Amino acid sequence: MIFFSGATGMILGDYLTTEGISAKDDIQMARDLGLDISTNYV
Question: Is the pTM value of this prediction over 0.70?
């Protein structure tokens, strides 16, 4: 996974994921992976 290699950001929602997956679901997926993320811009 890119975050374990040093990435510090991601594009979410319908930009680079399967159409129909909401930003909220993308954020939950990151949290399920144990990532500590900011939601200041959501």
Answer: no
Residues 6+ apart with CB under 8 A from 24: 42
- Give residue 18's pLDDT: 60
> Hunting for tokens 């290699």 — which residue is that?
5
Residue entry with tokens 């975050």: 3
C-alpha dihedral sign at 13, 21, 33, 1: negative
Task: Express as a percent the part of the chain with pLDDT over 90.
Answer: 0
State how far the Cα of 13 lies from the Cα of 15, in Å rounded to an integer: 6
Is residue 27 within 8 Å of residue 33, measured between CB atoms?
no
